[in-house]
Design a protein that fits this description.
Length: 213
């Protein structure tokens, strides 16, 4: 399945994050040897352990919830954090990145699903966050886009509506806060069960685990 999905993503010009949570280093190496370099993990400890064991040209993406007291473990190497849900978290990531003279890419996570279990900002909260003067002082983070997860359902119309809403949140923020900043260009949405719908609705990054491992 990996080769098929990879080809599909290349055709659609979409970045494939291989979600390697719970997978062994051997399983990850099998994809690495096929050319995959971007891997996503949802837990800090697991990602740090794998970072130690695996080739250093892997680009690590944190896709799961992040606690402030754990940022220090990933700040030296993480490439992108998909799960920014507050200004205080963003500020904390910036502080840790600064210690290593790094710039960490971040995505603002939005709550687009009907399930309460999925975390994320509302559009109003994002406006408040981005309009805050402190944002201008954060030189060690680069806000590159938005992320969201659709409801776990078989109703494709609902999934499609939720992805549309994330895409329009992206457009809104791009026009309001980032019109002179080309780095704000990513919409991270779509997993094993719904990535084709996500790509149709304008995803630029998909995060796929079970379908490729
Ligand atoms: C696990 C996970 C994925 C991948 O899910 P699959 O259904 O295995 O493709 C994508 N995004 C997040 C945030 C995840 O936690």
């Amino acid at each position: 399945m990996y080769d098929q999905i990879k080809t599909y993503c290349i055709e659609k010009n979409v970045t494939l994050v291989a979600v390697s949570k719970t997978r062994t280093t051997q399983e990850i190496m099998d994809l690495y040897n096929k050319g995959q370099r971007i891997f996503g993990e949802n837990r800090v400890q697991e990602m740090s352990a794998k970072y130690e064991d695996l080739p250093k040209d892997i680009e690590w993406h944190l896709i799961g919830q992040l606690q402030k007291n754990k940022i220090k473990y990933i700040a030296p190497f993480v490439n992108t954090i998909h799960s920014i849900v507050s200004l205080s978290l963003l500020t904390a990531v910036n502080e840790h990145a600064k210690k290593y003279s790094r710039v960490i890419n971040v995505l603002l996570q939005f709550h687009i699903a009907q399930e309460d279990t999925k975390q994320g900002l509302s559009i109003t909260e994002a406006h408040d966050l981005l309009a805050h003067p402190e944002i201008q002082t954060l030189n060690n983070i680069n806000i590159i886009g938005v992320m969201g997860m659709a409801t776990y359902t078989l109703d494709e119309n609902q999934i499609s509506r939720e992805f549309k809403s994330l895409r329009s949140i992206y457009e809104n923020l791009q026009q309001t806060f980032f019109h002179d900043k080309t780095d704000f260009c990513e919409v991270s949405m779509g997993m094993s069960g719904d990535y084709k719908i996500a790509i149709n609705e304008g995803a630029t990054i998909v995060r796929i685990g079970s379908a490729i491992f």
